[in-house]
Amino acid sequence: MRSSMKGGMVIPASSPAYNVAYKPGKGAVAMKNYKSILYLFLALGMMIYAIPQLPVGEGWSSPSIFAAAWLIFSLLVVAALLYDLLSVDAESRQKIEKLRGMRRQERLRQLSSRFVQARK
């Protein structure tokens, strides 16, 4: 029989409290999407405001190199926000969460076996 130790108390594996883990609900996912959308609009607004004022195409001067670097970094920010917003890596994120759950259960089993051995 597997068991887990929570707060100095042994919880049997058959108990519903054994595999309790924080899983964000739909509200947390929606809030994350709102944040990504807000950040995306802020980044796009900043680009729309700044692009006409950037000195692009003036040769290899310091201002034009800065403008090119700024454009590259701003495009990376927009690309990262779109990547996150479109949930391109949702499957890999689910695999990682499953692996973390398996590792957590293994650690709990090791701790409970140590606890049981210490009590004998």
Label this structure with key terms.
single chain, 120 residues, mainly alpha, two-stranded antiparallel ribbon, 3 helices, 7% strand, elongated
Structure explained in plain terms:
It contains 3 helices and 2 strands. The chain has helices at residues 26-50, 62-85, 90-119, and strands at 3-6, 9-12. It has a two-stranded antiparallel ribbon with strand order 1-2.
Can I get a quick summary?
With 120 residues, the protein is mainly alpha-helical. The chain has helices spanning 26-50, 62-85, 90-119, and strands at residues 3-6, 9-12. Helix 1 (26-50) runs antiparallel to helix 2.
Q: What is the rounded Rg?
A: 25 Å
> What are the secondary-structure elements, in order, as H or E?
EEHHH
Any idea what the shape is? elongated
What kind of assembly state do the chains in view correspond to?
single chain
Q: Major β-sheet, in short?
A: 2 strands, antiparallel
- Unreliable stretches, pLDDT < 50, 5 or more residues? none
Helix content: 55-70%
Count the DSSP helices.
3
Q: Which structural category fits the helices and strands?
A: mainly alpha
- Compute the separation of the termini in Å: 16 Å
Q: Report the sheet-strand fraction.
A: 5-15%
Number of strands: 2
In the sheet with the most strands, the strands line up as: 1-2
Output mean pLDDT: 78
